[in-house]
Amino acid sequence: MAAVEVDRLIVPARDDYPLAVRRYRTGQPSKARIVVAGATAVPQGFYRAFAELARDRGYEVITFDYRGIGESAPGSLRGFRMDYRDWGRLDLAGLLDHVAADGPVHLMAHSYGGQALGLLPDLSLVRSLHAYGTGSGWHGWMPRAERLRVGFMWNVMGPVLVRATGYLAWSRLGLGQDLPVDVYRQWKSWCRYPSYWFDDPSIGDEMAELFARVTVPIVAVNSVDDRWSSPAARDAFFAGYSRAPVSVVDLRPADVGQGSVGHMGYFRRGSERLWDQCLAGLDL
Prior knowledge:
The chain is α/β, with parallel strands linked by helices.
């Protein structure tokens, strides 16, 4: 297998915030471009294995870190302010402005990334969305044990960590990258609702209108053992893509040769069969 060629770039978001970007080049004309929009608190390096495989299948792949995360984080998150929606409407949007000059891209999304499509100012830059583990974060869609654990995190550990550090020091809990305080507060607030921000009385109508603009084809894959984003949570959220053709897949780990998938296994090594299925769909 040829060595993966990776360019490391700094690309401005729509408000000029500098974003760390990696571009996996094919070394020849590519079939298409894929942009990976990752999950909350997950740095872009997590998606390297997928990017390598897709590059070897002839696709140019671009990964990036949202502001406040990974290589796009400031020296300290204390005092760092942002809106959680900025990851879609400013960060992903700015990246697409940069990479979609030669035509629309396919969006490969994990969790939050599948929510970001509806936030984009220019939807013409996206040809399709494949979303893995995207859904409403409402605790009621979770198994009872996970519901209790998440409630403890939101209502006990989260406030303690925020008071101590000025941000959500998630890394101390082993749950991923640290998060800006505004991401924590908004995420926690929207997770009170079965349909996430669509049920928030302060912005629900606005979000419904934004997401009703989306008409590109969507494939939404959720594993039956995903405790954070079950198929029921997916269905609650993707109802907001009210005009898009949405195909849903209830993934059973054995179908892709896995013992478990959960919320993170979609993009871990060992999921190559799942990635091949996705890329085969892009080739049609």
